From TrEMBL:
InterPro entries tied to this protein: NqrDE/RnfAE, RnfE
Coiled-coil intervals, chain numbering: none
Membrane topology of this protein: Multi-pass membrane protein
Subcellular location(s) of the protein: Endomembrane system
GO biological process assignments: electron transport chain
Keywords, comma-separated and alphabetical: Electron transport, Membrane, Translocase, Transmembrane, Transmembrane helix, Transport
Organism in which the protein naturally occurs: Anaeroplasma bactoclasticum
Pfam families named in the record: Rnf-Nqr
Protein name in the entry: Electron transport complex protein RnfE
Amino acid sequence: MKKFSYKKTLIAGIITENPVFVSLLGMCSTLATTKSLEAAFGMGILVILVLIGSNVLISFLRNIIPSEAKIPCYIIIIATFVTIVKMLCEAFIPALYTGLGVFISLIVVNCIILGRAEAYASKNGVRASFVDAIGTGLGFTMAICIVAIIREILGTGAITIGQYFPLPSKIIIQIIPSNIAISLFVEPAGGFLTLGLVLAFLAWNKNRKETKNIAKEKEAKVKEMKLKEEVTK
């Protein structure tokens, strides 16, 4: 029996199988809630909570839920946790609730959550499903926060904290002069543009590493052939 690895499962969700940058899932949330770092972070936390709850419960009930009705059952379970998270957010972080608006409810149809329920939680134990939810949730949060940081800095020139979370005062970290900021980046089109640039950079970096590895392998083969020729002489 294959031994379960916390580390591999976490790394897969955060990096190697990142739901946004690798699988290109959850695009609605990624594009709509990344105008500011604080909003993106808030959405990430809500998604993590829903992922944990739904993954654990679906894993626990995986042998009870009939296969012919599993998708409707998964959606009901996910919708239940989204409703709970939504109510808690409205009660304790009303500014975030108002800022994210309808996109909290749309977590129900987020492909990441339904995908992990079907592909992982329904086939693995509770502990593994919990760790998978943490890894996938952190990967999603990291990805949308990266997009949000780029959009907010280029669009406003600063990172603002305290708009959505109940802090004593608003904190504004000025990164670049506001007069050279490009407001397009905090518009809907800016979400597509920023995500496209980030994905292009990641694809370039991946190709660069693969090219280096291929070159190293070729160099090693050439050295090996030369060594064999010298031995035969």
